[in-house]
Design brief:
Blueprint: E1 2-8, H1 17-27, E2 32-38, H2 44-54, E3 60-64, H3 78-91, E4 98-101, H4 115-122, H5 145-157, H6 162-170, H7 172-181, H8 193-209
Parallel strand pairs: 1-2, 1-3, 3-4
Helix pairs in contact: 2-3, 4-5
């Protein structure tokens, strides 16, 4: 059975999760998986509805929302996001199988566990500057993992001069996309609760779509 999936995400850089989702599905026994991403629309239900209109024949839907725990408001947090995704799927009147993807508190937390990858995308794979990365067990406790990742990339890349530093900082989205595209299955990610839930939810959803796997 061919799995055709749609990833509804928050922005264009999160589309880099598509090849990783494909790899995860194949890891779980799918022979062929074809997926794409969509992020247009204002509300989550609009995003889901628009994506389904643009890409027909989907048999598995992934919906990504950062938990945004750092905001410390009732509108943030993993449970709120899972409920929000379920409500968005219902409002969009999608009756198929869906999988929520809710990193705690941002997707960047998933990218901080691989120092080698951070040094590689920064352009200085053999650099020796200390990056002061947090322990993997602490990644989901960081209030602003995006800021920590930006700082680690700057330390790793060690750009010299104001102009080079500015250009380097402007490339953060590209660095983030590369890290996201190359997230390793297994390894340090397995220690993160949000990743483990996504992995298990994807496996359970896959069994509903293709019971014979």
């Amino acid at each position: 059975m061919i799995i055709r999936f749609l990833l509804v995400c928050e922005g264009p850089s999160d589309a880099a999760l598509v090849p990783h989702i494909r790899a995860l599905l194949i890891h779980h026994g799918v022979v062929e998986a074809d997926g794409t991403a969509s992020y247009g629309g204002r509300t989550l239900a609009d995003k889901i509805r628009l994506g389904l209109q643009l890409y027909e024949g989907i048999n598995l839907l992934f919906v990504h929302r950062d938990a945004d725990d750092y905001r410390d408001t009732p509108a943030a947090g993993p449970k709120t996001r899972y409920d929000e995704i379920a409500a968005g799927v219902r409002c969009a009147e999608y009756g198929g199988v869906h999988v929520p993807i809710v990193p705690v508190c941002m997707t960047e937390a998933w990218l901080l566990g691989d120092e080698t990858a951070i040094r590689r995308v920064s352009g200085r794979p053999n650099g020796m500057e200390p990056l002061d990365l947090p322990l993997v067990s602490q990644l989901e406790e960081i209030l602003d993992p995006k800021d920590v990742l930006r700082d680690a990339l700057t330390r790793a890349g060690a750009p010299k001069g104001n102009r080079r530093r500015k250009n380097f900082h402007n490339d953060f989205g590209n660095f983030r996309r590369q890290l996201l595209e190359n997230l390793p299955i297994g390894g340090p990610l397995e220690q993160l609760s949000s990743w483990a839930r996504f992995r298990d939810d994807a496996r359970a959803a896959l069994l509903r779509v293709a019971p014979g796997l």
